[in-house]
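note to self: dont lose this again. the chain is below, predicted strucutre after it. 242 aa total, dont forget to put it in the shared folder this time
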Amino acid sequence: MTDARQILVLWDIDRTLLYVGDIDRQVYRETFAEIVGRPAEHLPARGTGVTMPLAIRSLLLDNGVPEADVPGLVPRMVELLPQRLAAHTDDLREQGVLLPGAVDALKAVHAQPGCVPTVVTGNLKPNALLKLQAFDLAGFLDTEVGGYSSDNDHRPALVGVAQERAQAKYGTAFTGSNTVIIGDSLEDVRTGLEGGAPVIGVASGKTSASELRSAGADVVLGSLEEVAQVLDAIGTVTFEGV
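---
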């Protein structure tokens, strides 16, 4: 990779960098019970990458909340969800795990001249920061310029959100030629295809390498363990590979 121009690197968080087990689902349980007043019998599917506001909407509908009530309840749950996750900070550290190669890959991209590493995630921003801070990862990412589901519940729109923020901060126009997404799910691939950025798929979650490739990922890696492969892939899918 050269350092002549800047590259915006948009990391996914869950199942790409770290895995928090059942904690997110427990937080959904607690939030639903507090807002709706009864236990949730059906929880959001694991590892889909769907944005939290959309997951909350599905959670409400799947548990028999009348559709007319959903628009009023979603904002209340969105507000409460980070508070509930914050109460599980110790659990994040004790039960969560870093995925193989995540720290070394983050360090390498962060140290690469010209790279601007941040996140595009289905997490609300407070939830994303809680997870990153629990694993001491926030220092390798410019979280100010990321895209979060707090910004828009339509995940592909978050690419443009991050690009605009990064341009305002760094003075570089970020487009599809100098932006890349790194993620594990079909939602990460869709985010890139619809949001206008190439995707490096990482088969570290519930989606296989062949599924990521078939969905349209530009490069697919088995894990983040080979740092040189990660850096090469970033170069391949951006203007450096042209």
